[in-house]
Design goal:
Oligomer: heterodimer
Helix content of chain A: 55-70%
Order of helices and strands of chain A: HHHHH
Order of helices and strands of chain B: EEHHEEEEEHEE
Strand content of chain B: 25-35%
Strand content of chain A: under 5%
Largest sheet of chain A: none
Radius of gyration of chain B: 15 Å
Number of helices of chain A: 5
Number of strands of chain A: 0
Strand order of the largest sheet of chain B: 1-5-6-7-8-9
Helix content of chain B: 10-25%
Distance between the termini of chain A: 12 Å
Shape of chain B: globular
Largest sheet of chain B: 6 strands, mixed
Number of strands of chain B: 9
Largest interface: A-B, 23 and 26 residues
Mean pLDDT of chain A: 95
Low-confidence stretches of chain B: none
Structural class of chain B: alpha+beta
Low-confidence stretches of chain A: none
Chain lengths: ~80, ~160
């Protein structure tokens, strides 16, 4: 798992995210147009499918940047 | 983090008709998903509010669906916070529509109550009892495995 691959997967999970529009320090709620709970659910589904890690919404909402989510997955996979 | 208690009901008193219309039909937050909502209407038919024996239910023209309503208490004068409509088809639970009060939506005053996640988690539990494989999210078609718990809240 690496951050570049994770960013691509994140962009694929959210339809309104343009490919190449996100970086590790992107505040996804701010920069992704129309970000809402359904977008968050799509990301949670992607994380479970791609990384075999279940992140609960309670923990996900505490993340501001893409890197926060990535670090959370890394911690949970250890 | 503590959350307010939410009452989930599969029947809604007819007294809530105006609130239901406001959340379901006149909700500006749905504008971002307008194209996908249109597709849902094309496949499942128009949605109408039906009154039966003093209770309201949401009915899709072409499909038998189930609804779950979220209210801010068990009291008779409780406020309607949101609704989720779903159906079971081919071992999957398809969520057709979710509508929540703008105050409870993303960037709303009560966003931290995580209402949409709680509604989907409730449906996941119902679907889990019916031994379906996964939940299909509305508008995006993304799939959540039935074992994937969405949120940790004791309801």
């Amino acid at each position: 798992m690496n951050i570049e691959e994770f960013i691509k997967n994140f962009e694929s999970a959210v339809e309104s995210a343009e490919p190449g529009s996100l970086a590790s320090d992107s505040e996804f709620r701010v920069v992704i147009p129309g970000w809402d709970s359904l977008a968050a659910l799509s990301v949670l589904a992607m994380i479970d499918a791609e990384y075999d890690v279940t992140i609960k919404a309670n923990d996900f909402i505490a993340c501001d940047k893409i890197s926060d989510v990535y670090n959370l997955i890394s911690r949970l996979k250890q | 983090m503590s959350y307010h208690t939410i009452a989930f009901k599969n029947k809604l008193s007819a007294l809530h008709r105006k609130e239901l219309e406001r959340i379901f039909f006149f909700n500006l937050n749905q504008s971002f998903h307008l194209d996908k909502i249109q597709q849902t209407i094309e496949s499942d038919g128009l949605i109408s509010i039906i009154e039966e024996k003093d209770y309201l239910k949401l009915q899709f023209e072409n499909n038998e669906t189930e609804s779950l309503f979220a209210l801010d208490s068990e009291k008779s004068d409780a406020a309607l916070l949101g609704v989720i409509c779903y159906k079971f088809f081919n071992d999957k639970c398809h969520i057709l529509h979710i509508a929540v009060d703008p105050d409870c939506a993303t960037k709303g005053h009560f966003e931290s109550e995580l209402l949409t996640f709680r509604l989907v988690e409730k449906v996941r539990k119902i679907a889990s009892d019916k031994r379906v494989e996964s939940i299909i999210l509305p508008y995006t078609g993304k799939e959540i495995k039935i074992k994937q718990k969405i949120i940790d809240i004791l309801e």
